[in-house]
Amino acid sequence: MRLQRRQRFVFGHLTATCSAIILLAALGSLTLELVFVISLIAFLVLVELTAPIAVTPRWRSRLKWVIAAGLLVFAYLVIKRILEILPPGVI
């Protein structure tokens, strides 16, 4: 039963990520940054939608490290994008 829930979580995330890649490719705006951001959002939504009520399995408690790493990379991408937008003399 545990493996089945874990597999459903992984398959759900893969499905969301692959769907995002196909949609971005169809729209002509496929970039690594957009794929990462949409994949991170899908991951966070999936974590919340599949959260257990009573008991948290050990594998789910390790997801906080994946979330933290994803948010750090997201913060880096946002800062990089802000620095690209700002005029050269501001910073």
Automatic annotation (TrEMBL):
The keyword Membrane applies. The chain crosses the membrane at residues 9-28, 34-55, 62-79. It comes from the Archaea. Keywords: Membrane, Transmembrane, Transmembrane helix. It holds the Pfam family DUF8044. This is AI-2E family transporter.
